[in-house]
Design brief:
heterodimer; A: alpha/beta; Rossmann fold; 7-stranded mixed sheet; 36% helix; B: alpha/beta; globular
Chain lengths: 346, 308
Amino acid sequence: MPWTKIQADETGRPGIFGAATAAVRELSYRDAIREALAQALERDSSVFLIGEGIDDPGGVFGTTVGLVDRFGPDRVMDSPIAENGMTGVAIGAAMTGMRPVFIHMRVDFLPMCMDQLVNHAAKWSYMTAGRVKVPLTIRAIIGRGWGSAAQHSQSLQALFAHIPGLQVLMPASPYDAKGMLLASIAGDRPTLIIEHRWLYDQKEDVPEKPYFVPSGRGLVRRIGGDITIVATSYMVYEALRAASELEKSGISAEVVDLRSLQPLDETIIIDSVKKTGRLIVADTGWKACGISAEVAAIAAEHCHRALKAPVRRITLPATPTPACYELEKAYYPTHEDIIRSVKELL
Amino acid sequence: MLTIRLLEEKVAALYSEQEIKCPIHLCTGQEAIAAGVCFHLKKEDTIFSTHRSHGHCIAKGMDLKPLVAELYGRTNGCARGKGGSMHLVDPENGIPGTTAIVGGCIPLAVGGALSARLKGGKDLVSVAFFGDGAMDEGSFHESMNFASLKKLPVIFVCENNFYATNSPQRARHPQVEIVGRAKGYGMPGIAADGNDVQAVYHAAEEAVSRARNGKGPTLLEFKTYRWKGHVGPTPDVASGCRPAAEYEAWMRKCPVDRFTDELLKGAILTRQEMDRVIAEINTRIDEAMEYGKSGARPSPSELYDHVW
């Protein structure tokens, strides 16, 4: 297997959005993804990319720029706008020896693929007692702002994290974006990686050589003792900003980046909540039946005696996304909402 | 064809014992299509099929023992009892999966063909088996479009038995001639009598040859008739699901009898030889039944295995 050449590299890992050091390059989230794709294509001939417009000059917000010139249209393949059918095609290719990466410019296009994702990709391993695997990686991007409105900005991770057999990842940092993408391409699980458009310009140290970031493991991004803020994707950034502000008021907040929603790292949540006794969950999605509900339930099930205050959830309001600036501004929670909730709990 | 018929008759006969504890969708009456198409396939060629897949899997070369054991839900079944009748699998014989979602297998087969193309080297093909019900689904359109666009080595095999569960085709399609749809995708379509195994053989030969030679996909339409109900071991005519006259007319067009008669009349086989073939098949079926019934039942601890 070509993948055996890739070794996980745990060195040079800074905190999220850390500054570059002399030893390691600083790379944007966007470029970390592109580098991972290029390295996967270089190392394993069974890897190919497919998706509508991935060979455009814009290259899916820059994440696939130049790849078609390097690897050719058979391995960086433009696709008809046929999300469900093409997901089936990618699954069929994965079941017969390939490692496709299917790329969607918006998460909002994934509901079109529900049949193939939920009924097929998530089921083949189980239905065949592990005889058939689906090493398929799907990338989908959450949009935000500039009037993206109700159908170009959704954060639908909870819909997919509900399904056993479907791995759902939300890397928040460039380091994780590269390592999780490579690990999922090299792994045998059908994996949905949800990226947030607002993370694309974030930079941090990213090793050049390939490495894996495993699924099922969250990461403590900031150590604290007074309250735990469990966050996903872009909300990790808002949580870290809130924690910095709170420090000025003498409040020590611990920030946990979930990173992997299915499988979910229950231990990291439980350990942190038992330590701090307080929990706020900040998710990019909606509240009802969402990731924040799952995290809160884990705390309720395992940390009942440790909790000193009610759990609070920072999520989107229960409405579709509005287009105009004023309503959009009111729609998205920020670090200020997190700070307010923290102060109410302490 | 005869193996499929005799095995399914045995399964239907034993179903009332309630030892096969899963829904069964029998293809009795439709065997000629599986046999005629799969005759042209190599072991490494892939087929993707549906909830009604016993015939396709047998014709593709799947061993009867793990097939039957899977119906019985035993650990010596092809999926250790986790798939059941609707999800037979045998990757080593080119059967990566069978799906019970109508239309679901069509894009998967196109993916199998894409895989064959990208790997290069061998002239492998991929086959999608589906019914007229799958023509209602968007995945059919999406798959035909992409396969033709990329000239992929895939054969779309529509077994038109005129019913999706109990809904007649005329209640679902404004245009009942399925083969004509190929034209819209710039792809050849061939229609043949699905109860005539030789007609199926010749149509499939042309389609497989095109695919192997890089000329792209073909849509095959074979009209046929399902003898049993949509699900279960018995016919559904008495319950009013289908007209009795229609059913009777199709029962007179049995594909197995027709080919047997041709073999005997053409003196290709004697009655004696035919009886010997039947006896051999029945022995294999009895062995498979014994293998399935005697297999170990899974321990509850297996519940969490194989999710990933």
